[in-house]
Amino acid sequence: MIEVDELTKFYGNYQALNKISFTVNKGEILGFLGPNGAGKSTTMKIITGFLSPTEGTVRIDGIDVVENSLETRKLIGYLPEHPPLYLDMSVYNYLQFCGRIKGVSSKRLKSSIDSVVEKCGLTKYYKKQCHALSKGYRQRVGIAQAMIHEPAVLILDEPTIGLDPIQIVEIREMIKAFGGDHTVILSTHILPEVDMTCERVIIINEGKVITEGSTFNLCDNVLDNSQIALVIHGNGRELRERIGAIEGVTDVVTEPGEPGTEKIVVSAASGNDLRPQLARLAVESNNELLELRTISLSLEEIFIKVTTKQPEMTLS
Amino acid sequence: MRNAWAVYIRELKSYFVSPIFYIVAAVFVFANGTNFKDTFFNFALQTMRFLRNYINYGQAPPMANVNDVAGSIFTFMNFISLLIIPLLTMRLYAEEKKNGTMELLMTSPITTPQILMGKFLSCLTIFSLLILTTVSFQVILYYYSEGKIDTMSVLTGYLGTFLLGGTLISIGMFFSSMTENQIVAAATTVTVVLGLWLVIFTSTFLNQPYNHIVRYMSLIDHLDSFARGYLGVRHIVYYLSMMVFWLFLTGISVESDRWRQ
Fold this sequence. Notes:
Order of helices and strands of chain A: EEEHEEHEHHHEHEHEEHEHEEHEH
Strand content of chain B: under 5%
Order of helices and strands of chain B: HHHHHHHHHHHH
Helix content of chain A: 25-40%
Mean pLDDT of chain B: 90
Strand content of chain A: 25-35%
Largest sheet of chain B: none
Low-confidence stretches of chain A: 310-316
Oligomer: heterodimer
Number of helices of chain A: 11
CATH topology of the largest domain in chain A: Rossmann fold
Number of strands of chain A: 14
Number of domains of chain A: 2
Number of helices of chain B: 12
Shape of chain B: elongated
Mean pLDDT of chain A: 82
Radius of gyration of chain B: 21 Å
Strand order of the largest sheet of chain A: 6-7-8-3-9-10
Shape of chain A: elongated
Helix content of chain B: over 70%
Largest sheet of chain A: 6 strands, mixed
């Protein structure tokens, strides 16, 4: 649905994007992750046609966004970082205006407005003036505006920023409901959000794609070894020695645990699952096994790992 | 077309909820009204002097012409337009840039010329409403002079003011599209417009053909013929080409934001 190819953008001498390439399939919800200033907003602005790339192409449904900007803009609903509201208009009039400039036919305009007003939970507020709305409701109006012409692609720049926790959950649900037959790209630096809403993640830093994958297998991409934690009763010296002898184990360390117990962290080359072997060994060495689990990195840890690992990677 | 209409309607509504519009309208109406009152009283005074002299001495200086009063309405209104139009145009693009709504317009399936025309025509409509308030003065003159007023030069006078307004609006829009600060937009517009207005005074110091070029460039020189009731094609062409030129520049300036920043 969206093909981004070797996108480069310079602001004067400052390079914001450095040959970013990725594709988004139809119906996918893609999370766009990166620290502040990584180039998330710039990429989104180029996809929506607000900015032109210095080099590279973006195609939506096979149509180039620079050459056929008007066509691609019909396919896109876009929520910028700051919701683009006319503060002197009522929510209803604002949505009416947005519908008109986005080519919603006069016949369908009213039902389109009603439908987005309901979806975004604005039923009580649509007669209000935009300047009287709180940040969260402005954000909702911004999302309503992006969805009014039922675009095939929805691009949301930090949709949940500045919202209260209940609103965040509601908006996530809204985005999830919208995905399916629509393609969604959302940027954020709030990591659990990606975990909860997105099927696939792209992490960018300093204008480059660092890693991409489904939220599930991202850990494997990032880690070259896996870790397993065991918690046992009593002294585990014998057990540790026997574990150390297993082929593929690179490191065995103990960590302080509850009194009378011992926590052993086993590192091994990723790929082979050591859990059955470890369970058997624990039983054989007469240590009661209290806990056995693989340590998976949270998205935060992956994020920090990849964004700080970056300089080394470019060196090698 | 529908897109441009949507922008046009939105801009019009936006003027009517903006305090600046009401201040501008009040100043415009008050200044024009005061000017009319003064010139009209002057005219009445002169007429009475004429009658007194004529009755007492049997001779008098030439009688004041009621058409001069009508002419002075236009001269004054044109000058006031130069000061108020920058206040009407300053928000057109600068406000959208500041609020981030430019991002909405630029990513919607609407072309830059459509946005441009919607904005231009809405401001021109507002300006037309303002100049229509002065029709009341012409009506007073018409009845006072028992229909002796030159209706043709009143009509062409309004056409002249309308064309001048369009030109000033297109200049104002250009400077509004250059910045997100409305004050800066208004200040630069006033400066440039005043320059284009006053440039005519340099023509006396210049030789041929430069003095003619400068006269043609000046915003003010073309108004005389309209005030005298003539429809000079070259004057109409001047204002229309000025509008096209500045609107074109505005379009370029807006579109170039995609590349700059």
